[in-house]
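Problem 12. The chain below contains 137 residues. Write out its predicted structure in token notation.
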Amino acid sequence: MLHQIITASTPYIKSLIKVANATDTHHIQCSALWDTGASCCAISPQIVKDLELPHICDRIVSGIGTSGKQTRFFLLNFELEDGTKFMTLAAEEPSLTHCHCILGMDIIRQGDWLLKYDEDKYTFSFNVNHPKHGIEL
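Solution.
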């Protein structure tokens, strides 16, 4: 399970992650922004270059300030600080400036996302170990 404290000086959720190529033979550590408004993950061109990622496909992507932009996608692995790994397609996004990766809903929806407020701070938790027995509503 991943835990992080968020205060007024850091009003976003950012984590240090390991990014690797699809075969896990090359990896780097970098900062990643958790973004519930992003439907898929995104990576900077620098990560594509550093990991020598092969281009997998092109897709049309729309977002804030863009409409129908052709974007290159790459297959890679993300590893969170707690050791949880995900393989996913990620879009190359040249405009990333405050982080190297965006973790979008393709990753977030695979786990339990919790943001708890207590005494002027938020605690963020992300867990992919779902209980075998839950409550049916």
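Discussion. The chain is about 10% helix and 55% strand. Students who got a different answer should revisit the alignment rule from Section 12.3.
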